[in-house]
Each structure stands twice: as C-alpha cells, then as structure tokens.
Request: fold
Amino acid sequence: MPSQTLEGGFTEPAVQSATAFRSVMEAMARPGTCHTITGATPPSPLSKAAGAVLLTLCDTNTPLYLAGPTDTPEVRAWIAFHTGAPLVGPTVCAFAIGSWADLMPLDPYPIGTPDYPDRSATLIVETDTLPSEKAALIGPGIKDKAYLSLPDLAPIQINHRLFPLGLDFIFTSEATVTALPRSTQVS
Amino acid sequence: MTDQAYNFAYLDEQTKRMIRRAILKGLAVPGYQVPFASREMPMPYGWGTGGVQVSAAVMTTDDCFKVIDQGADDTTNAVSIRSFFKRTAGVKATTRTAEASIIQTRHRIPEDALTESQILVYQVPIPEPLRFLEPRESETRKMHSLEEYGLMHVKLYEDISRHGHIATSYAYPVKVEGRYVMDPSPIPKFDNPKLGDCPAIQLFGAGREQRIYALPPYTQVISLDFEDHPFDPSKADHACGLCGAEHSYLDEVIIDDAGGRMFVCSDTDFCRSRQEDGHKGKDAA
Reply:
C-alpha cells in the first residue's frame, strides 16, 4: 500500500475535526462567508479543504460520489482508508465531490422527499478559478445581502425553488471553505 | 483537567460526525426537525441529553462554555453540565454571557444581546409543535410536508374563545422563514422576539425524541397570532426586586408563609452584573 494512502489524515482527529466542523458550520450558517479549514493533505486533485470536509463529515454511513477526474485509484484508496465511505453513483449519494462542470447536471442527485427533506445530497464543489462575476445572496443566515462568486446561476436558482427540498453546496478551494444551502436565494 | 479515559467532548467521532451532518441539514432547512441517532448519555432524559450532544458536536478546545437552566447558572442541571464539559473537553467555563462562545440553555434566552461569535444550544423536551394536537408522527410529518398548520391556529383560537386572549405563555409556536412551524422549546413567550434576526447561530437538540433543528443567524421567525389578537410577549408587571430592571423576564419567589413574594430576574448573570453596576431594586439588602 503506498504511504500516500496512509498519510494526510488528521493527526489529532477529535480536536482537528471539531475545528474543521466549526468552519463548515459557520460557512453553512452564513452563506457567502469564507472560512479557513486545514488539517488534511489528500492526494491530488483534491484540495486540502475538500480533504478536511471529507474527513469531518464522511464515514461508512455516507455514500460518496467521485465525479470526473477526482475518481483516481489514489483518491479511492485514501478515502477508503481514512473514511470508509462507500463509493457510488450520483443517484444514491449523500455527498458528491468534483469540479462544478464534472458534477453537472444536478438532476440525478437525491433532493430529499417532502416528508424527509434532509435525505438529500451535499455537493462538495472544488473551485480553482472562480469567474469574477458575483452573485447576490439573500436568505436565512444573511443580514442584508451577501455576495459570492458562483460558477453558474441557473441550476442554483432552480435548486432554490425546490425548497425545502434540494441540494446543499460546499465550495472548497485550497484551504478555504464557503457554502450555499438550498435556502439561499441567488440573483 | 481533561478526563483522558474519554474522547474529546465525551462522544466518539462517528457519533459526532452523524450529529454534525444533522446540524448542517438543520441549518440548510431552518425549522425542519432532522432525525438523528441520539445516544445514551450519562444523565437521564429530560436533563438536557439533546443539548449536551449538540454542544459536544460543535465544541472546540478554544471555546468558553456557559450553561443556564431557566436563566440561572447555579442550578444542579447547569452546574453538572458545565463540569461535565470541563472534565471531558477541558474547555473554559464561564457564567458571563458576553464571555461565552457556546451557551447551552434550558428554557431561556439570555437577556444580553448575543453576538455573531456565539452559538446558543437549546435543550428541547418535545420538538414537535403539533404533537399535543396530533399524536401520530406519521400525520405530523405529513402536515409539515404539506404546510398544513390550520390545527395550530385552531388551538390558538380556542385559547381566545375560552380565555379571551391567547393563553399559551411558553413554548409559543413560531413560523420560520414563512415555511415550517417550529417549537422554540419551552422558553417563555417573552423570549420569542429574540429568536428572529439573531446574530448568533441557534441549535436545538431533543435527545429522547431524537431530533435536531436549527435557526441560522438573521432568520425570520414570526410568532403565530391573529390580526385582532396580535402576539404579546408579556411578563410579570413588576421591576426586579434585586436590581430594579424593568424589562427583564422575572421569576416570582415566595419568601414567607404569609403571602409575601418578590420578583427577581430569571437571568442570574444579567441581574448580578446590573447589581455590580450599582443598580438596586426595592428588595435589595
């Protein structure tokens, strides 16, 4: 087994995952705000932030979909060793990870049911270069208005119209995490 | 001193991940009760097992922890939960609202305004606001999914027809962002206006009932009412006997067996800091 597979996890899981979760929670509670998240060194092409989010939230109970080029033998082995998350397709996943283009289209992902809107997927979107165009956000967690660079508006607007069903997005880039829950209205 | 026999903050990592996922869903769908696999805690149900699990899942080593029980920092429940996390997580504890980064509460919201760097964790006995109107979980779940809240308005209307006003004085139902009707836990309705537009993150944990729900900061929270019977966040019509505060929520304390009584702030930290600032009520020594 290559040593890369065994390395790159949290060195102090309890303490580091707690700090990492607070960043993710603050991001989800306050859409549009950016938070630092560190502690993980996953194999490329995963970013450090995405690695930390996976270690914090994924385990054997959360089916994971690796979209596009993230689906490499190294990444599969790293996720298997550190989280044990079963790897599945988009239709039954609890989490999905990849670039925006690779995760598209959004139709196949589970959006929850009217009785259980929580049974929906969370998409971890790896973003390297964001377009400079900024979208305005309003909704719970935002005082007046927040702004965030988004890869595309239309699918996110459609997702918001499904509320309380829909997908939640966690955007990761290097060591930064920001989030967009389904409750946020984007324009 | 951290108790090394336990994991940080008592719960194992897999349990915390499960709770953390539920908290994120709760924040994404404000007011919706997310089911979670509540664990047995080393305290009885009704003593805040839900709140303790939520606190354990969000706590970091840098946090400063405060617990209030009906506003008081010095009751058995508050003292024991505070020392529980001092032992198992090694966090600092405080009684001062302004110093705390996580405040676990049973049935009150602190009088001092909360800030963006704080998290308020509620202990919830019955998370389902419709439970006493409809005992079947399958039915209440359907009512939430169909946004069918007529029954709750009928209940408030029956209050008016029987008492002349809405007699519900605690656990007063609220509507979150125009979608879900939510039980704010048994806080007095005096506290309801503080739920909405609050800078802090508010998390609700019900251990026995296995539900977690949440209010992100600055969420719109409306107490249900009628045009001709608007919501009234009432309190006892007195000033605090110890600190003289006129706009805080008061407890009535019986002081002798001849009908004597006094009213004091339910928020002990608020009352103490006012007394330290030199405010004096009519019953102060």
